[in-house]
Design a protein that fits this description.
Blueprint lengths: L1 E3 L2 E3 L5 H17 L11 E6 L7 H16 L3 H8 L3 H17 L4 E5 L9 H20 L6 E5 L8 H19 L6 E5 L5 H18 L8 E5 L2 H4 L7 H8 L4 E6 L1 H7 L12 H14 L5 E3 L12 H20 L5 E3 L4 H16 L2 H15 L19 E2 L6 E2 L1 H17 L12
Parallel strand pairs: 3-4, 3-10, 4-5, 5-6, 6-7, 7-8, 8-9
Antiparallel strand pairs: 1-2, 11-12
Length: 434
């Protein structure tokens, strides 16, 4: 037996095994780099390209605020409309109204796909030019949402050449108009059925960057998971893994598409809804497959909109939409799609209720206790998301009696940050930065 620092061991060397473990760690870290950094918007608003103007976001907010003031003018009517406890109804309504007045749209897509339809080349070229001028004017007036972009046509149904033409024309004209690409830009790539389509799109983005003189890798995209083939591919494997690989680091998000997916599953129209069990299955696959990859998840939309401007009608839309948003949030999907100004009050009401109920004094105290204990050099520590980073010890919270795991604190910390980012709670809830 060998002598290893005074300890007798039977195996003379494990250097080769340690080298293999290190290689495994490197492979894992490359595949699962951890959660995406920075703020994630709570929604994406889709606007047909021919209807987009420099004032679209503000107009959505103004109409949403009108609906709020008309159909829920105070906490007494606002609370019942969204199922809120009277104790928080006033605070939620105040924050929702402020959000609608200041940042009603967090993320916006100028839609050249289903919401826009198939037009002649001349007509779509004209709407591309209109979109460029509208984006430029909004950017110069500082009314362009923090996150924005285009949804192009799918490669799956013969629209690939039109899709590439639209994107090239838009970015070329915007470069010529502004001299730069405003930040927060994302392309939405819909109806993915084969990873090979994503590979072709990625190759095209590389060519486009070179032709436009853009920095390599600046053109990023999200996919829409709205086909059964994106979940289980043509060879019977989980399709999303190959799709992410085909994006070669450019894929930032995956958004679920309720209606195309449920139709593909053969569900009748009355069952094509966000909270159907078939959608839960697809979303669960998305979560498990994309966890830790840095690809953000977004849920789909509700297609219910008010038929007329009566309180009963608007409240009915709000109730159904808020229920769908709550379903998404409670299942770990913190972003969704919105299609109509009436969706904004119910989006923010549900989001703010979710965070205000989750971010109570006990949750804040648990996170602060963890960070304070770590700063003092005790057990616990700053949670580490990296695959190779230190795994911190459990910490018993004396106030709640909960034995907190490092993973729990990571989750709570992320929840607090999301609550602050969207305006649900004030930044004071966050623990001090070490």
């Amino acid at each position: 037996m060998g002598d290893h620092g005074g300890v007798n061991l039977s195996v003379p060397s494990i250097d080769d095994l340690s080298a293999r473990v290190a290689a495994i760690r490197e492979t894992h870290a490359a595949t699962f780099p951890g959660p995406a950094e920075g703020r994630q918007p709570v929604h994406t608003v889709y606007v047909p390209a021919d209807r987009f103007t420099p004032g679209t976001a503000a107009e959505f907010g103004a109409e949403a605020l009108r609906l709020l003031n008309t159909h829920a003018p105070g906490a007494g009517t606002f609370g019942p409309a969204f199922g809120l406890d009277p104790g928080i109804a006033g605070a939620v309504r105040e924050r929702v109204a402020a959000k609608l007045a200041t940042e009603p749209v967090e993320d916006l897509r100028i839609d050249f796909e289903d919401g826009y339809g198939v037009r002649s080349d001349a007509e779509e070229d004209g709407h591309v030019a209109h979109a460029v001028e509208s984006v430029a004017a909004a950017y110069e007036a500082r009314t362009l949402p923090h996150y924005w972009g285009l949804r192009v046509k799918s490669f799956a149904d013969g629209g690939h050449e039109r899709s590439m033409r639209t994107l090239d024309a838009f970015l070329t004209a915007l470069r010529d108009r502004l001299g730069r690409l405003p930040g927060g830009f994302t392309i939405t790539f819909p109806k993915v059925v084969m990873a090979e389509h994503v590979a072709v799109f990625t190759d095209y983005l590389e060519r486009l960057e070179g032709a436009l003189g853009l920095p390599g890798g600046i053109l990023r995209f999200e996919i829409q998971v709205e086909t059964t083939e994106a979940i289980i591919d043509h060879e019977g494997r989980i399709g999303l893994r190959g799709i992410v690989a085909a994006g070669r680091g450019r894929m930032t998000g995956a958004a679920f598409g309720v209606y195309d997916y449920t139709a593909a599953c053969g569900l009748p129209p009355e069952e094509q809804r966000l909270d159907h069990p078939a959608c839960d299955f697809a979303r669960n696959i998305m979560q498990v497959t994309l966890a830790g990859t840095g690809v953000r998840l977004s849920d789909g939309s509700s297609n219910v909109v008010p038929r007329h401007d009566s309180t009963d009608e608007v409240h009915g839309v709000w109730t159904e939409h808020a229920d769908h948003v709550w379903h998404s949030l409670s299942n770990g999907f913190y972003q969704g799609w919105d299609l109509h100004p009436a969706h904004l009050p119910s989006r923010y009401a549900a989001v703010y209720r979710f965070y205000l109920e989750a971010v109570d004094d006990a949750a804040v105290a648990r996170v602060r206790a963890w960070h304070e204990r770590a700063a003092a050099g005790g057990e616990g520590g700053v949670p580490d998301d990296s695959a190779s980073g230190p795994r911190t010890a459990r910490l018993r919270n004396e106030q709640s009696g909960v034995l907190d795991e490092p993973a729990t604190i990571r989750s709570l910390t992320a929840l607090l940050q999301r609550a602050v980012d969207c305006g649900a709670v004030d930044p004071a809830v966050l623990p001090p930065t070490p």
